[in-house]
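One-letter codes give the sequence; backbone shape is given numerically. An example follows:

. . .
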Amino acid sequence: MDFITIPVVISIITYGIYKLFELFVCRRERLSIIEKLSDNQFLPAPDSFSLPNYAQPRTTYGTLKGGCLLLGVGLGLLIGFFICTTSIPHYFDAKHNWDTRETITIIYGSCVLIFGGIGLLTAFVIELMLGKKRE
Protein backbone atom coordinates (compact mmCIF):
# COMPACT_ATOMS: atom_id res chain seq x y z
CA MET A 1 0.00 0.00 0.00
CA ASP A 2 3.00 2.32 0.12
CA PHE A 3 2.86 2.85 -3.63
CA ILE A 4 -0.54 4.52 -3.43
CA THR A 5 0.17 7.14 -0.77
CA ILE A 6 2.01 9.58 -3.04
CA PRO A 7 -0.72 9.73 -5.72
CA VAL A 8 -3.41 10.04 -3.05
CA VAL A 9 -1.64 12.92 -1.28
CA ILE A 10 -0.97 14.73 -4.57
CA SER A 11 -4.57 14.27 -5.70
CA ILE A 12 -5.91 15.59 -2.37
CA ILE A 13 -3.66 18.66 -2.57
CA THR A 14 -4.64 19.28 -6.22
CA TYR A 15 -8.33 18.92 -5.38
CA GLY A 16 -7.99 21.36 -2.48
CA ILE A 17 -6.27 23.97 -4.66
CA TYR A 18 -8.91 23.52 -7.36
CA LYS A 19 -11.75 24.00 -4.89
CA LEU A 20 -10.06 27.10 -3.44
CA PHE A 21 -9.82 28.73 -6.88
CA GLU A 22 -13.38 27.68 -7.65
CA LEU A 23 -14.56 29.31 -4.43
CA PHE A 24 -13.03 32.66 -5.34
CA VAL A 25 -14.26 32.53 -8.94
CA CYS A 26 -17.80 31.59 -7.92
CA ARG A 27 -17.83 34.36 -5.33
CA ARG A 28 -16.85 36.92 -7.98
CA GLU A 29 -19.52 35.56 -10.35
CA ARG A 30 -22.19 35.71 -7.67
CA LEU A 31 -21.28 39.30 -6.82
CA SER A 32 -21.47 40.32 -10.48
CA ILE A 33 -24.88 38.64 -10.83
CA ILE A 34 -26.12 40.48 -7.73
CA GLU A 35 -24.88 43.78 -9.17
CA LYS A 36 -26.70 43.10 -12.43
CA LEU A 37 -29.89 42.20 -10.59
CA SER A 38 -29.75 45.39 -8.56
CA ASP A 39 -30.82 47.19 -11.71
CA ASN A 40 -34.58 46.72 -11.93
CA GLN A 41 -34.49 46.48 -15.70
CA PHE A 42 -33.54 42.80 -15.57
CA LEU A 43 -36.31 41.74 -13.21
CA PRO A 44 -39.34 40.24 -14.95
CA ALA A 45 -42.82 41.47 -14.29
CA PRO A 46 -44.58 39.56 -11.49
CA ASP A 47 -47.32 38.29 -13.82
CA SER A 48 -44.82 36.80 -16.31
CA PHE A 49 -44.04 33.81 -14.11
CA SER A 50 -45.83 30.70 -15.33
CA LEU A 51 -45.56 26.95 -15.37
CA PRO A 52 -44.05 25.17 -18.36
CA ASN A 53 -46.42 24.32 -21.17
CA TYR A 54 -46.95 20.57 -21.04
CA ALA A 55 -49.75 20.63 -23.59
CA GLN A 56 -47.33 20.39 -26.50
CA PRO A 57 -45.93 16.87 -26.77
CA ARG A 58 -42.17 16.62 -26.58
CA THR A 59 -40.76 13.72 -28.50
CA THR A 60 -37.78 11.98 -26.97
CA TYR A 61 -35.95 9.40 -28.97
CA GLY A 62 -34.60 7.30 -26.10
CA THR A 63 -36.36 4.15 -27.19
CA LEU A 64 -35.17 4.62 -30.76
CA LYS A 65 -31.58 5.01 -29.57
CA GLY A 66 -31.83 2.02 -27.24
CA GLY A 67 -33.50 -0.14 -29.86
CA CYS A 68 -30.95 0.69 -32.53
CA LEU A 69 -28.10 0.13 -30.08
CA LEU A 70 -29.43 -3.29 -29.04
CA LEU A 71 -30.11 -4.19 -32.66
CA GLY A 72 -26.53 -3.24 -33.54
CA VAL A 73 -25.07 -5.20 -30.60
CA GLY A 74 -27.12 -8.28 -31.51
CA LEU A 75 -26.11 -8.00 -35.15
CA GLY A 76 -22.48 -7.57 -34.07
CA LEU A 77 -22.64 -10.74 -31.98
CA LEU A 78 -24.19 -12.63 -34.87
CA ILE A 79 -21.61 -11.39 -37.39
CA GLY A 80 -18.82 -12.14 -34.91
CA PHE A 81 -20.13 -15.69 -34.51
CA PHE A 82 -20.20 -16.21 -38.27
CA ILE A 83 -16.68 -14.80 -38.64
CA CYS A 84 -15.38 -17.07 -35.90
CA THR A 85 -17.06 -20.19 -37.26
CA THR A 86 -15.81 -19.62 -40.79
CA SER A 87 -12.29 -18.42 -40.10
CA ILE A 88 -11.18 -20.34 -36.98
CA PRO A 89 -10.71 -24.09 -37.46
CA HIS A 90 -12.14 -26.29 -34.71
CA TYR A 91 -14.10 -23.37 -33.25
CA PHE A 92 -16.58 -25.66 -31.52
CA ASP A 93 -13.90 -27.67 -29.72
CA ALA A 94 -13.60 -26.97 -26.02
CA LYS A 95 -9.80 -26.77 -26.07
CA HIS A 96 -8.33 -23.60 -27.53
CA ASN A 97 -4.89 -22.23 -27.06
CA TRP A 98 -4.28 -18.69 -25.82
CA ASP A 99 -3.89 -17.17 -29.31
CA THR A 100 -7.19 -18.61 -30.50
CA ARG A 101 -9.08 -17.38 -27.41
CA GLU A 102 -7.63 -13.90 -27.82
CA THR A 103 -8.55 -13.84 -31.51
CA ILE A 104 -12.11 -14.88 -30.70
CA THR A 105 -12.34 -12.18 -28.03
CA ILE A 106 -11.07 -9.51 -30.40
CA ILE A 107 -13.48 -10.57 -33.15
CA TYR A 108 -16.51 -10.51 -30.84
CA GLY A 109 -15.53 -7.24 -29.14
CA SER A 110 -14.80 -5.38 -32.36
CA CYS A 111 -17.97 -6.59 -34.06
CA VAL A 112 -20.12 -5.58 -31.08
CA LEU A 113 -18.53 -2.12 -30.88
CA ILE A 114 -18.64 -1.49 -34.62
CA PHE A 115 -22.25 -2.56 -35.09
CA GLY A 116 -23.36 -0.87 -31.86
CA GLY A 117 -21.84 2.38 -33.15
CA ILE A 118 -23.51 1.88 -36.52
CA GLY A 119 -26.81 1.36 -34.67
CA LEU A 120 -26.40 4.64 -32.79
CA LEU A 121 -25.46 6.47 -36.00
CA THR A 122 -28.58 5.02 -37.63
CA ALA A 123 -30.69 6.27 -34.72
CA PHE A 124 -29.12 9.72 -35.10
CA VAL A 125 -29.88 9.84 -38.83
CA ILE A 126 -33.47 8.71 -38.25
CA GLU A 127 -33.83 11.35 -35.54
CA LEU A 128 -32.58 14.04 -37.91
CA MET A 129 -34.96 12.95 -40.65
CA LEU A 130 -37.92 12.95 -38.24
CA GLY A 131 -36.90 16.39 -36.94
CA LYS A 132 -36.76 17.83 -40.45
CA LYS A 133 -40.05 16.19 -41.32
CA ARG A 134 -41.72 17.71 -38.25
CA GLU A 135 -40.53 21.23 -39.10
Q: What stands out?
A: The mean pLDDT is 82. The first helix runs from residue 2 to 38. Residues 62-134 form one domain. The helical segments are 2-38, 62-87, 98-134.
